[in-house]
Design a protein that fits this description.
This protein has 14 helices and ten strands. It is α/β, with parallel strands linked by helices. α4 packs parallel to α8, α11 crosses α14 and α12 runs parallel beside α14. It binds 5-amino-5-deoxy-1-O-phosphono-D-mannitol.
Length: 359
């Protein structure tokens, strides 16, 4: 039930701090040891490459997963959209390991890849929110997201839960491989900061309603941009806005601006920019100037380390790969209030189903 909430989506956005704490409880000991079954870790240590396969928001969480596993477990990872992978299998590495991300565990595009992976005798893991789902029954290994039922069609808490669970597994694999970077990864603390940061965001709905009004207003187009991890989150923030508000939205790599998209920037166009990576912040600031010079209405969401005086939203700093736990929530809140302001049905947007069980 929605309880006192007007919509499931807002309830689910607001639940995210609790989800972070639940994942911490379920998967980490007080001294930051991860609780992952040995059989899964053994299978993963055999692998020479991870293949993430997913759709929609789960695909966007997989992009973050690649970065987490490459950094903390030093294992190469590829990420694929399930509907593409299914009909265009790449040449695999010698010892591939398949990771499926699926909130519902019912996505047909992902299942089709799982069936073929199993036919080839390849190891499979699913990270899902639904314990008795089809993918959970069919995969060799299952990690639950512990997000609680997600009812709104737009996925919110499953996205941040997927990222948190990926971080647990990446740390765990890195530790098994004896990597110092994994041993010193203070994940429990990071998730606690994330939970507190999320609480600060969701405790001020009015502020997000104002930002949505001031930057998205009744506009029909919007752009999200960022580099690296902020690019990953731009894609998710753009999907969130377009699927519920029907605003035509593009998320793209900030460096690509000058290669085409800048042609669309004119007076009043909303541009939402994520800046949380210190290494690329200066370049993205350059992009902000370029679009401002062309009259764009720019909203900057930055982490504390990257902050500048005029930034409208400043977030606590997490390890780079976990910043989507906070920037992702910003994207959700903006999309939510822009949609409410358009008088649309947030929980059940047109043409979309909660789980897509056809290819
Ligand atoms: O249940 P799944 O995670 O497999 O679903 C994948 C997509 O269908 C889903 O994320 C979809 O893109 C949502 N509408 C996004 O909010």
């Amino acid at each position: 039930s929605k309880g006192s909430y007007p919509t499931f989506m807002l309830k689910e956005i607001d639940e995210q701090p609790a989800v972070m704490r639940r994942i911490s409880q379920a998967y980490l000991t007080p001294d930051d040891q991860s609780i992952i079954e040995k059989k899964l870790l053994d299978a993963l240590t055999q692998a020479d490459r991870l293949y993430f396969v997913a759709a929609g928001t789960s695909y966007h969480a997989s992009l973050v997963g690649k970065r987490l596993f490459e950094k903390y477990a030093e294992i190469p990872a590829e990420v694929a959209v399930a509907s593409e992978f299914g009909y265009h299998w790449p040449i695999l590495s010698a010892r591939p390991f398949f990771i499926f991300l699926s909130q519902s565990g019912e996505t047909a595009d992902s299942r089709q890849v799982m069936i073929e992976a199993k036919r080839r005798g390849l190891p499979t893991l699913v990270m899902t929110n639904v314990a008795n789902s089809t993918l959970a029954r069919e995969a060799d290994y299952v990690l639950l997201l512990h997000a609680g039922p997600e009812i709104a069609v737009a996925s919110t808490k499953a996205y941040t839960a997927q990222i948190a669970v990926e971080a647990v597994l990446a740390k765990s694999l890195g530790e098994t491989r004896g990597l110092e970077i994994a041993q010193t990864f203070d994940l429990r603390r990071q998730l606690a900061i994330a939970a507190t940061g999320m609480e600060a965001l969701v405790s001020d709905h009015d502020a997000w309603a104002r930002l949505a009004q001031n930057y998205l207003g009744q506009r029909t187009d919007a752009f999200y941009l960022g580099r690296g991890i902020d690019y990953d989150v731009s894609l998710e923030a753009a999907l969130k806005l377009k699927e519920i508000s029907y605003v035509h939205t593009e998320g793209f790599a900030a460096g690509e601006l000058k290669h085409g998209t800048i042609a669309l920037i004119e007076t009043g166009v909303p541009v939402i920019v994520f800046i949380t990576e210190s290494e690329t912040a200066a370049h993205t600031r350059g992009n902000v100037q370029e679009v401002r010079a062309r009259g764009a209405n720019v909203l900057v969401i930055a982490s504390k380390v990257c902050q500048e005086a005029t930034d409208q939203v400043v977030l606590p700093t997490l390890t780079t790969e976990l910043m989507p736990l906070l920037t992702g929530v910003c994207g959700q809140l903006l999309a939510y209030f822009a949609t409410i302001q358009r008088g649309l049905n947030v929980d059940q947007p047109r043409n979309l189903a909660k789980s897509v069980t056809v290819e």
